[in-house]
From TrEMBL:
InterPro entries linked: Peptidase_M41-like (IPR037219)
Keyword Transmembrane: yes
Bilayer-spanning residue ranges: 7-26
UniProt keyword terms in alphabetical order: Membrane, Transmembrane, Transmembrane helix
GO biological process, one term: proteolysis
Source organism superkingdom: Bacteria
Keyword Thylakoid: no
Organism per entry: Cyanobacterium stanieri (strain ATCC 29140 / PCC 7202)
SUPFAM superfamilies: FtsH protease domain-like
The name this protein goes by in its record: ATP-dependent Zn protease
Gene Ontology terms, MF aspect: ATP binding; ATP-dependent peptidase activity; metalloendopeptidase activity
PANTHER family: ATP-DEPENDENT ZINC METALLOPROTEASE-RELATED (PTHR33471)
Length: 226
């Protein structure tokens, strides 16, 4: 989101600069673009330093297309399904920046995990590594889901950052990290394809903002039938 904020800043500055250059043609006072620049820079600075880009996220969400909003649902359903299948605790989920802001979290939306399970498993190194590997698959579940539905992925930047962070201590080279990422996406893809019908029903449940418990019950129901 920092990159998005910088892009918005660059576009805004370009627009203001253009207004300064063209102002004389339209009898526009130079104080207007100067004041707008000061206000804009102040707002972006406050948003970046104090609000963790939440204002930018809300702005992006407001102007997001219907397809982009749908992508978020398919993306997050990929996280939700893979997490449940791996018994990774889910605390909640949000699908818009506004929902996320109300829950006092950052980002545009997402599945909220209880990552304390990694600390609890830390006593047994083999079990810890297994859970770490599974969590890596869950992090790539959103990208895998988007690629299955849309043939490409537009989201997942934060997921990739988190993936790199959790594997940084045990990955020696960037090529090893890339290989782990591809394997995780492949495994997530297989899981979603195997449970495609359940996944699509989950997408509909999440679109309706069903509770975590209701979404989990849906998955369990379908697992029993299949």
């Amino acid at each position: 989101m920092q990159e998005t904020g910088l892009n918005i800043l660059a576009i805004s500055i370009f627009t203001i600069t253009l207004s300064v250059l063209l102002g004389p043609l339209f009898n526009l006072s130079p104080y207007i673009p100067a004041g707008a620049t000061f206000i804009l820079l102040s707002l972006i600075t406050v948003d970046t330093l104090n609000w963790q880009n939440k204002g930018v996220n809300l702005l992006i969400n407001i102007f997001a297309s219907s397809e982009q909003k749908e992508r978020v649902i398919y993306h997050e359903a990929g996280h939700f399904l893979t997490a449940h299948l791996f018994n990774i605790p889910i605390q909640g989920y949000t699908l818009t920046a506004w929902e996320t802001l109300k829950q006092r979290n950052g980002g545009i939306g997402g599945v909220i995990f209880d990552t304390q399970f990694l600390e609890k498993k830390g006593q047994d190194i083999r079990e810890f590594n297994l859970m770490l590997e599974r969590f890596g698959v869950v992090l790539m579940g959103g990208i895998a889901a988007e690629k299955l539905q849309y043939k490409n992925s537009e989201g997942g930047q934060e997921d990739l950052i988190k993936f790199g962070e959790i594997y940084a201590p045990i990955t020696l080279t960037s090529s090893n990290l890339e290989m782990r990422k591809r394997l995780a996406i492949l495994q997530a893809t297989t899981m979603i394809e195997t449970h495609k019908e359940t996944y699509l029903k989950l997408v509909e449940f999440m679109r309706q903002r069903k509770s975590v418990a209701e979404c989990q019950a849906l998955i369990e129901e379908n697992l029993m039938v299949s």
